[in-house]
Design goal:
The complex is a heterotrimer of chains A (466), B (95) and C (375).
Chain A lengths: L5 E6 L3 H12 L4 E4 L13 H6 L8 H16 L2 E3 L3 E5 L4 E5 L4 E11 L3 E3 L12 E3 H11 L7 E6 L1 H12 L6 E4 L5 H7 L1 H6 L1 H16 L3 E3 L2 E7 L6 E6 L2 E6 L2 E6 L1 E3 L2 H6 L3 E4 L4 E4 L12 E3 L9 H18 L5 H18 L3 H7 L4 H4 L6 E3 L4 E2 H9 L5 H8 L12 H12 L3 H4 L11 E2 H6 L2 H4 L2
Parallel strand pairs in A: 1-2, 1-6, 2-3, 6-19, 8-15, 9-10, 9-15, 10-11
Antiparallel strand pairs in A: 4-5, 5-6, 7-16, 12-13, 13-14, 17-18, 20-21
Helix pairs in contact in A: 1-3, 1-10, 4-5, 5-8, 10-11, 14-15, 14-16
Chain B lengths: L11 E5 L2 E5 L5 H7 L6 E2 L6 E2 L12 E4 L2 E5 L10 E3 L1 E2 L5
Parallel strand pairs in B: 1-7, 3-8
Antiparallel strand pairs in B: 1-2, 3-4, 5-6, 5-7
Chain C lengths: L1 E3 L2 E4 L3 H12 L4 E5 L7 H4 L3 E2 L9 H12 L1 H5 L10 E5 L2 H16 L6 E4 H7 L9 E5 L3 E2 L2 H14 L3 E4 L3 E7 L2 E6 L3 E4 L1 E4 L5 H7 L7 E10 L9 E4 L5 E4 L5 E4 L5 E3 L4 E3 L2 H14 L7 E12 L6 E4 L6 E5 L9 H14 L15 H6 L1
Parallel strand pairs in C: 1-12, 2-3, 2-13, 3-9, 5-15, 13-22
Antiparallel strand pairs in C: 4-8, 5-7, 6-7, 10-11, 11-12, 14-17, 14-20, 15-16, 16-17, 18-19, 21-22
Helix pairs in contact in C: 1-7, 1-10, 3-10
The chains are: A alpha/beta (466), B mainly beta (95), C alpha/beta (375).
Amino acid sequence: MSDRPFDLVVIGGGPAGLAAASQARQLGLSVALVDEQPAPGGQIYRAVERAEAEGRATALGEDYRHGLGLVRAFHECGATLFASHQAWQVEPGGRVFATDGKASRLIEGRRVLVAVGAIERPVPIRGWTLPGVMSVGAAQILHKTIGLVPDAGVWIAGSGPLTLHFAAEIVAAGGRIAGILDTAHGRLPETALRHLGGVVRGWRYVARGLGYLARLRMADVRRVSGVENVEALGEGRVERVRWRSGGQWQEAPASGLLLHEGVVPNTHMTMAIGCAHDWDEAQKCFRPRTDRFGMTDVEAILVAGDCGSIGGARVAECRGRLAALGAAASLGVISAAERDRLAGPVEAEVSAHGALRGFLDDLYAPAAELCVPPDDVMVCRCEGITAGRIREAASLGCRGPNQVKSFTRCGMGPCQGRMCGPTVTATLAAALGMTPQEVGAFRIRPPLKPLRLGELAALADAEAGE
Amino acid sequence: MFRKPPEAPDAVLVEVEGRPVRVPPGASAAAAALIAGLASTRTSPVTGEPRAPYCMMGVCFECLLVIDDEPSQQGCMVTVRPGMRIRRQEGAREL
Amino acid sequence: MIREADAIVVGGGLHGCSAALQLALRGLRVVVLERRHVGRHASGINAGGVRTLGRDLAEVPLSVLGMAYWHRLSELVGDDGGFTPCGQVKVAETHDELAGLEKRALAVRSLGMEHERVIDGDELRRRVPAIASHCVGAMVVDGDGAADPYRATSAFAARARSAGAQILEGEGVVGLERQPGGWLVVGERGRYRAPVVVNAAGAWAGRMASLAGDEFPLKTRASMMLVTERMPPFVEPVVGSVGRALSFKQSSAGTVIIGGGQQGRADLDREQAWVNVANLARSARAAAALFPVIRQARIVRSWCGIEAETPDRIPIIDHSPRAPGIVHVFGFSGHGFQLGPVCGVAVADLVTRGSTTLPIAPFSARRFAAAAKAA
């Protein structure tokens, strides 16, 4: 069955999507929100209502509890929520096909806002496919959703605000962190000086970071800085972690290893739609090309939040509101002048919350070896393709990721290139002496997530629309 | 690698590899497999190596599980229900 | 600077690379101009079926001759292109359909060819145990099979290069000028001159023909394919259907590739194609009807291969009717992959000898002259 067309279909129930839905409703648009999680909040405010009901939200911090207001406002705004729905095809004209895991439906939008957030940057190191090696974000989701905390012997390796935030959160919740292997190679004082203006304006965020560090010192969590070449070792599971710092190799027993090297926009959907993307050298990732309201080069498609550009939760919320204004204006619901008037204060907020971004990008830029790993490191986890195979394909004449894919099956597995895409682009670019923009990215093909064949077959002709 | 969560009064009873396991409500099937202490949750159909959940947010597809007899389900995207049967996925999915 | 050659091939697909190889083997200096990269469109991303079975009767003689090249692909290009002679099966779901196959087999036999054979339901189930129980029989060709399209196309390109052909990737053609004794081809990056230009530009061949002054009433096909996750081996031959648009095959990796000609939408200017969900659902439905066992299999990817289609759905393999020195080889209408190796020989014959003994008479460029004038 097909639903009535909505003025705006929002995909993703994180801060950008929630704020956009509420704002669009305020402007009088009919709105549907499609979210793959059972409850709104996105990854940053994951399960915030459950955590609040179970009395855990406060312990997860005021930043986390901020999401509660967004979720509550959303519930009251009158948008139609399709929870636990995975959008598997978004057409440039605004049709969205989504499944609840059993059956698919068509949700039509005059405008579609892609607000699918960020994904953690893949961290291709030796041994990263071993069981027991997870991302920091994964462990945080386990904590937010069901209060699971790491036990003895779990190491964190990586850089970025989330590593400190998460470690502090776990220590506060009574969990254990064996140690933090800090791979940041930006030097704090110099970087801070370079971005002095931003650091001053973003002092609240800086203070928070310093607070995490203090808490970790108090809890006696070991912190090793200047770490390179982290490796996970073990038979069938991670048993030891090895790294180099100060020119020395070191090793420690490990029951688990949590990796994190920052987040990148989740561009899977906008790439599949065919929106134009540009390489962002500062954040080392592709991002969709948009105007200040998140409008892409495809008329019906808008983008907001971290899937457009990494800015964090509060910036995402603002971008969601801006996109709602953009959608309303492009549908003729409000005038361009009204849009600009309403956008003014929101853009000021973006600038305030985003003050620290340049500093963070610089300080936590991923090490070259993570973007372009050595030959023996697995890049495509699904199909078991190493960096060496990618270089070999390049030496045999492959000039882009799609040729490498045809040649090696790299990116053809169930994750559809999500885990290897950035590394393939970077590795090829380095091998060919080209820029990532020139090399390009995998072409993303529908379905956006693997879909049961029977479910596609069951789509009535009328539903698929012709 | 994770501490056993304190047993909630509203814990959900599921079956992981044939063994009964009580997990917090709202847990995903992948989380249930981790709580059950499975060393790995699948083997790669390409290399045969053991694999386990990596991202827990639907991106990596390492947590593919056989849930209630249906293979290739993203364990991190499926919320547990009472009586759910969760099994490892060995190599390529069954027919 | 103008680069001089004996023949210029426009299009680095299977047909272009195959023609380039045959021309290079005959000692010609060949330049291939490929706008993107070898095998970028239909040649590299089709369903990989290598089929004589069920072809248009006009194509049968050439297709049957062409099969020999696939069976000896390693000798020709140094790689088997992933070809496996796993057989092709065209399934009948009703007795009427089966009777139609019997009639067809007779028609083919009357041409003096014995490759197609009709089998009953029991034999079908022995060959394809996973087939739906209602199917009553099939037509089979045992020597047919499937190949890896990208690998096969790449192998032809590599062999053509080693035989001396220059394949220039990232070089699109923007202009064509007739000059004394030949043609000047204007590329995005360079200029090339040769007495002969082979138009193997696939979906864009109509535009290339226009540059030479030939107008053909062509459409663009955007045949969709979808592929599943890896499955345990459960079907050996490539399976098609009498009553449904379907081709169904399991790759050596275990993935199942489902094609059959359901159409998406193509944009020649943007060099892009989009799947049509309604038609894709029809493909899935056809596959599930014949193989109920894959209803739960997960589709990982779908895509379109774009190609030119002629009004009678058989190709044009001929000299240009108007422009001396232009040889057309295009319009395979969604089933040109199997013909790639043999067509290279036919084209090389046309270029070097002016004619060929291969059975390409039905593929004359003149058959559309009236239609083109009317249009």
